[in-house]
Amino acid sequence: MKKLSxxxxxxxxxxxxLGAAAAALGLAALTGRNDLTTAVLILAGFGTFVSGVFFxxxxxxxxxxxxxxxxxxxxxxxxIATLLAxxxxxxxxxxxxxxxxxxSRALVPAGSSVPTILPENTYxxxxxxxxxxxxxxxxxxxxxxxxxxxxxxxxPQERDRLxxxxxxxxxxxxxxxxxxxxxxxxxxxVVDLKGxxxxxxxxxxxxxxxxxxxxxxxxxxxxxxxxxxxxxxxPCQILAAVPSKNGNELHLIIGPRPQx
Length: 260
Hints:
By secondary structure, the chain is α+β, with helices and mostly antiparallel strands. It has helices at residues 8-31, 36-59, 66-71, 74-86, 141-150, 159-173, 199-208, 211-215, 219-232; strands at residues 94-95, 106-109, 125-127, 132-136, 179-185, 188-194, 236-243, 249-256. Helix 1 (8-31) runs antiparallel to helix 2, helix 2 (36-59) packs antiparallel against helix 4 and helix 4 runs parallel beside helix 7 (199-208).
């Protein structure tokens, strides 16, 4: 797997994402509608904005202060979680393996039941025999796509190789952690990072509400959740995302959808 380039291509991708975010939010403002479709359009705009800023921070030729970079992911994550809560949703997100077209999607269930698979449509709210919920693209979607298209990243299915891939992404490709460990505890994927460059942003999000970490997931945590879901072949959720109180460490647990 190749490292992310810090040349202008990454920064250009970030600028394009910011443009897409502006278009989505502008369209939502111009329509003036107060329905679920507009709400999800706003969600998409926030998500694309956060990912765009994240790309720009990675694409700079000079090193960006890690605390500044970590703060880019805070407000978008919080605002999306707040919007979902305002729509009456209270559960945590499930991140699904890519569908037949390669799309990664997440679902926040409206009730106690969680669909095994999502319908092959682009609706922002799905109704199935197994359960209903709001569907949105994970904040990590553009980053995961870039890793696959530009860094030759392939998500392995075997547990050991999946753990190795997570470590490689965190430590060697994104270079957001000085030391990374990943292992399975039963069915759950446990990731421990030391020297984690984005720890300040994690603490900011948790300071507002730890629910934001599990209901939406920032671009980084949702990236690991998407990788886990694709590797395990089942919907997964962020069970815990706990940064150290003062240092630069992160303890992350990703678990599969409970079996009925």
